[in-house]
Amino acid sequence: MPYQPRVAILVPAPGYYEKWQPAFARKAAALTAAGLAVEQRPWTDPGELAGFDLILPLFAWGYQRDVAAWYGLLDRLEAEGLPVANPVPVLRWNSDKAYLAELGAKGVAVVPTVEVAALDDAGLAEARAALGAEEVVIKPAISGGADGTHRLAPGAAIPADARGRRRLVQPLMQGILVEGEMSLFFFDGRFSHAIVKRPASGDFRVQEQFGGRESDWDASPAARDLAAAALAAAPAAPVYARVDMVGDDAGALRIIELELIEPSLFLHHAPDKGAAFGRAVAGAVTGLVAAR
Q1: Which end of the chain has fewer surrounding CB within 10 Å, N or C?
Q2: Distance separating alpha carbons of residues 85 and 201, to the nearest angstrom
Q3: Does pTM top 0.90 for this prediction?
């Protein structure tokens, strides 16, 4: 019987509040169809991992709430030389949204962002002035699922959970309220599909838990080029990637986030239902095995 490579998918800790199982089933089905044996391990306590041909942190949900444990896991994966996709340097780089400044410095169009080490009234006023925007969004630099993300109207006070904390300040992108947030998906560097996520009426967050809804989107050449430029600036080529972008006040697209750790891939919107994703991961396994 031919050898069947073993793949570990890191999943949330037991009892995690968000439903991750349906999306896990779609990803696991795509990997199984590509000839891989899939197992799941909680990212918070994954146990022995040396026997796996590849480790995928695709459901390391909640890592932003235990940053020390997350970075500890990355250190362990790196120290033990374990095969990971995306590679550990990419995961570490993508964990902190300070990478947006790096993308901007490389000429990639990103949402304007000011980092404040300990947010207070003076720091917020300076950020607003630097951005030329009174209505802003503040968020933790290490965040996920819109945790700790707030929309501040002109003159609004700093929320208690943000005061004195490291925060990123961005102008509210009007495009997210009108057109929504666009997500493009790439597997092994090749474009697969795209969706647009729209917030519920009166909200600015596009996540499902806040009433956001998604639909297919026909990504323009400009959107694909922008996404490709952002991915080219990553420390290494990602096996899987989601690139989120929004339109600014002039209608130009800007990167709001790169999702290279644990993105929802919306494989049910992919024309091939995830076959390209499965092939990309299987190809990564083959490359790692060949390099041993």
Answers
A1: N
A2: 37
A3: yes
